[in-house]
Design a protein that fits this description.
It is found in: Cell membrane. Keywords: Cell membrane, Membrane, Transmembrane, Transmembrane helix, Transport. Belongs to the 4-toluene sulfonate uptake permease (TSUP) (TC 2.A.102) family. It is a multi-pass membrane protein. The structure is a single chain. Helix content is about 75%, strand content about 0%. It is mainly alpha-helical and about 260 residues long. It has one domain (about 5-255). Helix 2 (about 30-40) packs parallel to helix 10, helix 4 crosses helix 8 (about 170-195) and helix 6 packs antiparallel against helix 7. The longest helix is centred in the N-terminal third of the chain and has 25 residues, at about 45-65. The termini are far apart. About 50% of the residues are buried.
């Protein structure tokens, strides 16, 4: 597939905004996946290409947090392995799903993610006693890794929420470790989808450059505790607008099914 300069520029802008949001609160895929699909890219290729660009942006955020000493790599070794393994399974599963099914499923998942960001619990800054043990942490990250490999948007927010609500971490620490876990799941899914020949490299690399810049900005804002209050409403508005765009595409199977009943 070939794309004009205007389309690539808009996709790069989407990746920059998504990289910033993803480093700060997670959920950047709510912007990039609908943007890729709105550019005419089929769902599986859109998800695969999104993994390429988001892997660069997440790496950028991990490096920024690591330089500040915010990541405990030893403690999170096995949760990282769990997220990586689960993501491989999810990426294999998505390549076996009918593309028309995905075209109808993606808008549903996006609306569900928007509802989560609008109504979901807000994280706290205070460290608390963990409700679950290390084995549960590995298991939960395996499950979220599978989701990330299969679809992706909102994974970072789900991980951060779990670390805060179930494992007693403060918001900044949870955000930093979420980037590490999300990087593992991104890389695993990307490698699996590359083997499957699903990645659009030219588009993904252009978006990756913008995503790196956005990841650095988002990590800086997260460490400075600035701008977080704007992220949730922005994600909700963007996801709903872009979902509407997808549903307006001719032949969307979800719309056709709704008309049939």
């Amino acid at each position: 597939m070939e794309f004009g300069f205007e389309v690539l520029a808009l996709l790069a802008l989407a990746a920059f905004v998504a990289g910033t949001i993803d480093a700060l609160a997670g959920g950047g895929g709510l912007i990039t996946i609908p943007a890729l699909m709105a550019a005419g890219i089929p769902p599986v290729q859109a998800i695969a290409t999104n993994k390429l660009q988001s892997s660069f942006g997440t790496t950028s955020a991990v490096l920024a947090f690591a330089r500040q000493g915010r990541i405990d790599f030893r403690r999170f070794l096995w949760p990282v392995v769990g997220a990586f393994t689960g993501s491989v399974g999810g990426a294999i599963a998505i390549q076996r799903v009918d593309p028309s099914f995905l075209s109808g499923l993606v808008p549903v998942l996006l609306v569900a993610m928007a509802a989560y960001f609008l109504l979901g619990p807000k994280a706290s800054e205070a460290e608390r006693h963990a409700r679950l043990g290390h084995a549960a942490l590995v298991t939960i990250m395996f499950a979220l890794g599978f989701y990330d490999g299969f679809f992706g948007p909102g994974t970072g927010s789900f991980m951060a929420t779990a670390l805060v609500a179930l494992f007693g971490m403060g918001l900044v620490s949870a955000t930093a470790h979420t980037k590490l876990l999300n990087l593992a799941s991104n890389v695993a899914a990307l490698a699996t989808l590359v083997i499957g020949g699903k990645v659009l490299w030219s588009v993904g690399l252009v978006m990756a450059v913008a995503s790196i810049a956005g990841g650095q900005l988002g990590a800086h804002l997260a460490l400075g505790r600035a701008g977080a209050r704007l992220i949730r409403p922005l994600l909700v508005v963007m996801s709903l607008v872009l979902t509407t765009k997808l549903l307006m595409e001719p032949g969307n199977p979800l719309v056709e099914w709704a008309r049939s009943i």
